[in-house]
Specification:
The protein is an alpha/beta fold. The chain contains 16 helices and 12 strands. Bound molecules: pyridoxal-5'-phosphate. Pyridoxal-5'-phosphate is lined by residues 39, 99-101, 125, 171, 175, 206, 208, 237, 239, 245, 250.
Length: 436
C-alpha cells in the first residue's frame, strides 16, 4: 500500500515560494543575492489599515464570522466593483476568501468535471495549471506571444474552444508578462464566448493587478461587457493593490447568489472564514480616502522602475524585453543569451531525468543565481505544458531602484560569462530549484 494518494504526484506548485531555499544556500556560500523573484510589493501595508486591524483585535473581534464574509465588507466590495466595472453587484454575490488564490480551485471544483477542458493563459499564474491537472480536467494552454505584447485575440481563443470547453481563465494585467487586454480585446473575446460556448461555460477573470496599470490606462474587466457579468467569476483582492500579501485577503464576485453559496460552502469546508479583523482592515483599505494616494504613489514607483529595467535589459546583447503595461514584472526573452552561452546545447546533452526537471531558461536562472547572485523566475514556473523552446525569465520590479540597477548589471555580466557557464555545467549542481 502506498503512503500517498495517486493524485499527489500531479500536484503542481508556485516556484516563487520554492526559490527561498536556493537563495539561502547562495547566501550561506557568501553570495549577496539580489531578489528579482518577488511576487509581492516591497511596500508596507498602510498605517491606517494596520491600525484598523489592531483596533478590531483589541475590541475582541477575533471570533468566527459569516463564512461568506462580513456583510459590511462585502457591501464595500460590491460598491467598489460597481464603481470600477460599471456593473451593479449585490453583496450576496460576493464571497470573501483568504487571498485571491482560493477562488481558483473553488471555480474549477464548482464548474469543471474530470475530462472537461479548461483554457488558461501560458505563461500564466502557475496555480491555474496546477489545479486543472490536479482535478483531472484537460489543460488547454492559451499561449501568449511576445509578438502580440503577450495579449491574445479572439482568433487565438476561437481555435481552442471545443464542445468540451467548460472554463476560460483570463488574467489582465498579467502575471508574469505584464500584458494588459484592451477593452476591444475583451469585447472580441466576449463575442467568441457568446457565439461558440454553451451558457454554462464560465470565465474566471483574475483581476488581482487591477490597480497596477500604467501609462494612465484604466483597468478593464470582461464583466463590464454586456452579457458577460452573467458568466464571469471575477476575482481580486488586497494583496497587490494595498501591499497586503501576508494578510491573506481576496474575494470573488459570482454571477448569481446561488453560485456564491457554493463558494461559501467551500469556505465552510476549508477555512470556515477569513479572520474578521482582517476583513475590517480590508474595508478600511477600500473606503479610507487616503489610500487612493498611497496606491497612486506605489504605482508611480513601479512605473519609474519599469522604465529603467526595460531600458537596461534591452541594452544587454541577447535580451529582448517588451514594455509591460501593468503588474510589477517584466518578462524578457533571453533566447539570444541561451544561444551565445551554449545553454541550449548544454541542456540537450543533459541526462533525460534532469532534462525533465529543467529547461534552457531554468539553467540560465540557476546559473544567474548561484554564480552571479540574482534571483529570477524561469519560464517553466508559469505553466509547463507546451513551454518547450520558450526562453524567458520573469523579473520583478518589487525592489529598490538601486538593487534593480545592480541586478541588471549582474545579468549583463552573466550574459557574457561563457567560461563561468561551462564551469557551472561541469560542476553538475543546481540545474533546477531544489536540486542538490
Ligand atoms: N492571481 C495572480 C495572477 C497572482 O499573481 C497571484 C499572486 O501572485 C494570485 C492570484 C494570488 O493572490 P493572493 O496572494 O491574494 O492569494
Amino acid at each position: 500500500m502506498k503512503l500517498y494518494a495517486d493524485r499527489i504526484s500531479v500536484l503542481g506548485t508556485e516556484s516563487a515560494f520554492k526559490i527561498g531555499d536556493d537563495i539561502r544556500q547562495c547566501e550561506e556560500m557568501g553570495l549577496s543575492v539580489i531578489r528579482l523573484n518577488l511576487g509581492e510589493p516591497d511596500f508596507a501595508s498602510a498605517d491606517n489599515i494596520n491600525e484598523e486591524a489592531i483596533k478590531e483585535i483589541k475590541n475582541g473581534n477575533t471570533h468566527y464570522t459569516d463564512p461568506q464574509g462580513v456583510l459590511s465588507f462585502r457591501q464595500s466590495i460590491a460598491k467598489h466593483v460597481h464603481e470600477t466595472r460599471g456593473v451593479p453587484v449585490d453583496s450576496a454575490q460576493v464571497v470573501v476568501t483568504s487571498g485571491a488564490k482560493p477562488p481558483i480551485s473553488y471555480t474549477i471544483m464548482s464548474y469543471v468535471n474530470p475530462g472537461d477542458e479548461v483554457i488558461y493563459p501560458s505563461p500564466g499564474f502557475p496555480i491555474y495549471e496546477s489545479w486543472v491537472t490536479f482535478l483531472g480536467a484537460k489543460p488547454v494552454p492559451l499561449h501568449l506571444e511576445e509578438s502580440k505584447g503577450f495579449r491574445f485575440n479572439a482568433n487565438d481563443l476561437e481555435k481552442l474552444i471545443s464542445p468540451s470547453t467548460k472554463l476560460l481563465i483570463i488574467n489582465s494585467p498579467s502575471n508574469p508578462t505584464g500584458g494588459v487586454l484592451t477593452e476591444q480585446d475583451l469585447r472580441d473575446i466576449a463575442q467568441v464566448i457568446k457565439d461558440t460556448a454553451d451558457e454554462s461555460v464560465r470565465i474566471f477573470s483574475d483581476e488581482i493587478y487591477e490597480d497596477i496599470i500604467f501609462d494612465g490606462r484604466k483597468h478593464k474587466s470582461i464583466m463590464s461587457v454586456p452579457g458577460m457579468a452573467e458568466r464571469t467569476v471575477m476575482v481580486s483582492g488586497h494583496s497587490k493593490s494595498y501591499a497586503m500579501t501576508g494578510w491573506r485577503l481576496g474575494y470573488a464576485v459570482l454571477p448569481t447568489v446561488d453560485e456564491a453559496k457554493i463558494f461559501r460552502q467551500f469556505n465552510i469546508n476549508i477555512i470556515s472564514c477569513t479572520p474578521p479583523f482582517i476583513q475590517e482592515a480590508g474595508k478600511a483599505a477600500l473606503e479610507k480616502p487616503e489610500n487612493k494616494a498611497i496606491v497612486a504613489s506605489m504605482l508611480r514607483e513601479f512605473e519609474a522602475r519599469r522604465e529603467v529595467v526595460v531600458e537596461g535589459l534591452n541594452q544587454i546583447d541577447g535580451i529582448h524585453c517588451v514594455m509591460p503595461e501593468g503588474a510589477f514584472y517584466v518578462f524578457p526573452n533571453i533566447g539570444g543569451i541561451c544561444e551565445r552561452l551554449g545553454i541550449i546545447e548544454a541542456y540537450e546533452n543533459l541526462p533525460p531525468d534532469i532534462r525533465a526537471n529543467t529547461s534552457p531558461s531554468s539553467l540560465f536562472q540557476m546559473f544567474l543565481l548561484y554564480h552571479h547572485g540574482v534571483a529570477t523566475m524561469d519560464r517553466k514556473s508559469f505553466g509547463t505544458i507546451g513551454s518547450e523552446g520558450q526562453h524567458y525569465l520573469r523579473l520583478s520590479t518589487a525592489t529598490s531602484m538601486d538593487l534593480l540597477k545592480e541586478g541588471i548589471r549582474r545579468i549583463g555580466l552573466a550574459s557574457k560569462d561563457r567560461k563561468g557557464f561551462q564551469e557551472y555545467i561541469t560542476r553538475g549542481e543546481h540545474f533546477y530549484l531544489g536540486a542538490s
